[in-house]
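3.2 Worked example (two chains)
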Amino acid sequence: MDFKRSDKRYRTLDDYLKNRFGKKVFKVALNGRFTCPNKDGTKGVGGCIFCSPSGSGDYAGDPCETLQNQYHKVKSSMLKKWPDAYTIGYFQANTNTYKDVVTLQQLFDEALSLDAQMVGLAIATRCDALDEAKIRLLSALNQRTYLQVELGLQTIHEGTAQWMNRGHDLSCFNQAVRALRKANIDVVVHIINGFPMEDEAMMIETVKHLNTLDIQGLKIHMLHVMKGTQLGALYEKKPFAMLSLASYVDITIKQLEVLDPNVIVHRVTGDSPKASLIAPLWTLKKFVVMNEIDKKMRALNTHQGRLFDDKSNGFKI
């Protein structure tokens, strides 16, 4: 398998964007003042068990500021590192299609008008906040700019989904992916490793299921226990076993081995604000986690898709 960077054994977003646009591209997190149907009672209350009060948007912009101010604050800081880079506007916090179509159109138009150096938008949302009208809006947006729509799946296992209060079933997710792909929109999926009721085989099955769908990107995270969340309160009352760094590395590598080699890997780990994180503390060292994955993949002489076979239902037995 031909990977662009010799130190990576999987397809990275950084390489993909450089190849597509000819130079470095970084995301600028924006806060469009969205809420969530799993918080306001439409689908549920309280949100997902691990969700922070800010809606998993701890690194998004300040909702009290205009999009323009949010954007230029982040961009000016990032340009010190990459002075000639392009940008992607990233609507991250909460459910970023959970408004009426007219308001969404105005918001996304405003974002695209912020900077001639902005080459695309990334929109994080839920599968149950995408109806036909919103898919049409996203399809039209996709004709104007590079577009990624991110969907939080986390797991395919319904028992886990109920425990985490996800608020929708797997069929809803599958239908949303198919609708987005019918409109030729790139789909990026979030999954989480380390749910206390899931073993290694279950986590790998989640990736195998994604191979049966037409997705373009994957984000892999460890379950984070944070202060101010339902999960945080549950953990502090009755702590449960969490994956060690070594176990997380092993499982993530096995997921990458079965993953379709054409899928772009956006993340192999994530981090939370240090002041908010309860466990596992090893996730604070994001680059250590990434380096451990790279090091072990080289030692095993393995790579993304090593066990993938599109002729046998997406993976090799």
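3.2.1 Second chain
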Amino acid sequence: MKKALLVTRVSGFIPQHEMNNVRILQKMGYEVHYATDLNNVVYGKDNSRLENTGIITHQIDFVRSPFSSGVKKSYLQLKQLMLSEKFDLIHCHMPMSGVITRLAAQKARKESGRSVPVLYTAHGFHFFNGAPLKNWLYYPVERYLARYTDRLILINHEDYKRGQGFHVRGRAEYVPGIGIKLPDDSCPQNMDMAERAEYIYSITGRNITPDTKILVSIGELSKNKNHILLVEMMAELMDLNIICIIGGSGSEETAIRRKIQELHLEKKVFLAGYINDVSGLLSASDCFILSSFREGLPVVVMEAMAAGLPVIAGRIRGVTDLIEHAKGGYLVQSFEPEDFAVKVRRMFTEKDRKSAVPRDIRREQMGRWNMERVKKFSRDVVEKRMWDIYKGVQKN
């Protein structure tokens, strides 16, 4: 049986984002292996989602910093795994594991004499238009490693345009994300008032009224996701009957809770922890909001679009592939809390200056526009692209 190796630096990434690719490879006759740091689960609570998937796991002691002495150890572990298992295809993800995997695969190729195709999906280059100078330190690394990459898979148009200028051993490919499952019908899956109130109470402990508006943001509580901005934004909206629910866990939770207390927003901003029922929270909400500094092609925004929600987000790479300003929501030019607050006010209190459309109808129109737009990023579209890519690199 042919063997395929998937590699990520931290565990949970494959069951969270790449199970469609796992199923494609298995249908193509591959035995799928997964190399990761099984002791560092970032996506999900544990490794239980890997059970009964047919995936064979391998522990690799990945480190986050390229300057760590542990880099050599993970490189040697990966190279030895490649030499012993004799994989027929390698597909890596995430920046650090992407670097180490391609270097190890190139060394294993030389030592074994076997030409194994190596694919790398960049889920958003660290370097992008407007990125800090330090982020561009990754640019020469990615450009160099392109020579060891048979397919460089890029998920937004800015990265794809840049990647086409690299000297890729094979070629650069545009794939519209990881593919999301669309609802079975074309209507937003909204809860009725009683269900909504009960659901929100179960998360926040707060009773809401029918006219309470729910802003929701879901993502890892990290500095890049920038949830502190949402807390500061809500301090500008104390006069409105709006609450903000932030779903997710991560290293910034303590700092976010401290900011909520500092601004006396305990009744306005709620941390809901890791969200298992994303679709349920989205269906109970009125608008999705994203404050990230950097994204590749944010899955949670696509999920919000599929749920029929309008979106407020920074005008950043990846988001601009998804949301068109004033059609699917509002894009914010800066990362100032006041500027985000202005867009929230416009979403919930102001009529459209050009068409005088009532705000409730405008939000519904934006949601429906998003539901149509997100079809371009559906699971069916992405699976067809990935099937063709895998088929194009597999050995006869």
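3.3 Remarks
The domain at 2-179+379-393 is CATH 3.40.50.2000 (Rossmann fold).
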